[in-house]
Specification:
By secondary structure, the protein is α/β, with parallel strands linked by helices. It folds into two domains: 26-103 and 206-332, 3-Layer(aba) Sandwich (D-Maltodextrin-Binding Protein, domain 2), CATH 3.40.190; 108-202, D-Maltodextrin-Binding Protein, domain 2, CATH 3.40.190.10. It has helices spanning 2-21, 38-44, 46-51, 63-71, 82-90, 134-145, 160-169, 181-187, 214-219, 221-240, 242-253, 257-265, 272-275, 291-305, 325-332; strands at 26-32, 54-60, 77-81, 95-104, 108-112, 126-129, 154-157, 174-178, 191-195, 207-213, 267-268. The strands form two sheets. It has a six-stranded mixed beta sheet, sandwiched between helices. A five-stranded mixed beta sheet has the order 7-6-8-5-9, sandwiched between helices. Helix 6 links the parallel strand 6 (126-129) and strand 7 (154-157). Helix 5 crosses helix 14. It is globular, with a radius of gyration of 21 Å. The chain starts with a helix and ends with a helix. GO terms for molecular function: transmembrane transporter activity. Belongs to the bacterial solute-binding protein SsuA/TauA family. It is found in: Periplasm. InterPro entries: ABC_Gly_betaine_transp_sub-bd, Solute-binding_3/MltF_N. Its main location: periplasm.
C-alpha cells in the first residue's frame, strides 16, 4: 500500500514537472513603438496571465531590427511587417509565420508636400522610406503598378524618426511611413497622397504578422496558441469600444489619442477562424497555395527584383515558413 502510494506520488511529481515544463518562465515579445491591439494586453497585464509567464516586452524601430533580434536569439515572438518577415525566412532565419495581426490599409501611407497631389507627382522628387519594411514594399509596388519612371525618383532609405527630421529640414519631398510618424509629417505641412489599401485592387496583400522562433513554438505550443487567443480578445475589445481602446493604447505608447485611433482603425483584422483557411494561412495541407503563401511568393519575387534577397534563395514552397497549427488550435477554444 505504502509502496503503491509512493509510486503514485512520484508519478504525480513527474507529471507536475512535465506540466510546468510546458510553460516558459519568460516570453520575450517584440513590438514596434506604434499603436497596436497587442498594447491592450501590455497595459492590463492580461498576456502575462494568459501565458502564465512573465512577458518581457522588447521594442524595436523597424522590421529589420526584429530580424536582428531573432538572429541573435533575443526574442521569441514578434509583430512586424510581411516584407521583412519574408526576407528573414528566405535568409533561413529559424522562424515561422503563425498569424496575421492586421492587414495594412491606411495605417501606412505616402505623405507629400505641396505640389504632390497624386502618386505620379513623385517623379522628380525626393521620397523617403524605412528600409526592409512593408512601407518600402508598398512604395515600390505603387511605383510599379502606376508605371512610374523609377529612375526619375530619388529614393532615400531612412528610419522613421530620421525621416521626420529630414522632412522638417526640407531634405525630402515625400515619405512613405506608418503612424505616428505619418501624422508628424501631416502636422508639418504634409497630406496623404497614397495608402497601402490602394494596392489591394492590384492583388497586393500587405500585412503585419506574428512570427515565432521555431524552437520556442515546438517547445511551448500551448503558449503560442494562448498568445494568439489574447490577440483575438484584444481585437474584440477594440471593436467593442474603439474610443476606450485607443485611449488605453495611446497612454501605453505615449501617443495622442487621435493617432492611436487612426492607427488601430487603419488595419483590418481577420479572425482566428478565418486565418486557418485557404484564404489566409491555410489549414495545414495547402500552405503554399494559401493567401499568405501566395503573398510570400509575390513579396519574395519583388524583394529579389530590387536586390534585397537572392532569387536562388527563394524556397520552392512555403511549408516551413507558415504554420497554421497554432491559429487553428487557438480558434477551437
Amino acid at each position: 500500500m505504502k509502496k503503491s502510494l509512493c509510486l503514485l506520488l512520484a508519478a504525480g511529481g513527474l507529471w507536475a514537472n512535465a506540466s510546468m515544463a510546458q510553460t516558459p518562465a519568460e516570453v520575450r515579445v517584440a513590438y514596434s513603438g506604434g499603436s497596436q491591439v497587442l498594447m491592450l494586453a501590455k497595459a492590463d497585464g492580461s498576456l502575462d496571465k494568459a501565458l502564465n509567464s512573465k512577458v518581457k516586452w522588447v521594442q524595436f524601430a523597424s522590421g529589420a531590427d526584429a530580424l536582428s533580434y531573432f538572429a541573435s536569439d533575443a526574442i521569441d515572438i514578434a509583430n512586424f511587417g510581411s516584407s521583412p518577415a519574408t526576407a528573414g525566412i528566405v535568409r533561413n532565419l529559424p522562424v515561422e509565420i503563425i498569424g496575421v495581426s492586421g492587414v495594412i490599409a491606411s495605417y501606412e501611407r505616402l505623405i507629400g508636400k505641396d505640389g504632390i497631389n497624386n502618386i505620379k507627382d513623385i517623379e522628380g522628387k525626393r521620397v523617403a522610406y524605412p528600409p526592409n519594411s512593408t512601407a518600402q514594399y508598398a512604395l515600390e509596388a505603387a511605383i510599379s503598378v502606376n508605371k512610374l519612371d523609377r529612375s526619375k525618383i530619388t529614393l532615400l532609405p531612412l528610419r522613421p524618426a530620421e525621416m521626420v527630421a529630414a522632412w522638417k529640414r526640407g531634405d525630402i519631398d515625400a515619405g512613405y511611413v506608418w503612424a505616428p510618424f505619418a501624422q508628424e509629417l501631416e502636422s508639418s505641412g504634409g497630406h496623404q497622397v497614397f495608402a497601402t489599401k490602394d494596392l489591394q485592387k492590384d492583388g497586393y496583400l500587405i500585412y503585419n504578422n506574428y512570427v515565432v522562433r521555431k524552437a520556442f513554438a515546438e517547445q511551448y505550443p500551448q503558449t503560442v496558441s494562448a498568445f494568439l487567443r489574447v490577440h483575438q480578445q484584444k481585437v474584440d475589445e477594440f471593436k467593442k469600444d474603439p474610443e476606450r481602446a485607443a485611449a488605453i493604447v495611446a497612454k501605453e505608447v505615449g501617443a495622442p489619442v487621435t493617432t492611436a485611433a487612426n492607427t488601430l482603425g487603419g488595419l483590418e483584422y481577420p479572425t482566428l477562424s478565418e486565418q486557418g483557411t485557404a484564404a489566409w494561412l491555410g489549414n495545414g495541407t495547402q500552405t503554399t497555395d494559401s493567401g499568405i503563401g501566395k503573398a510570400l511568393t509575390k513579396t519574395s519575387n519583388f524583394l529579389a527584383g530590387i536586390g534585397e534577397i537572392r532569387k536562388r534563395d527563394i524556397p520552392a514552397n512555403w511549408d516551413a515558413a507558415i504554420n497554421s497549427r497554432y491559429i487553428r488550435e487557438a480558434a477551437e477554444k
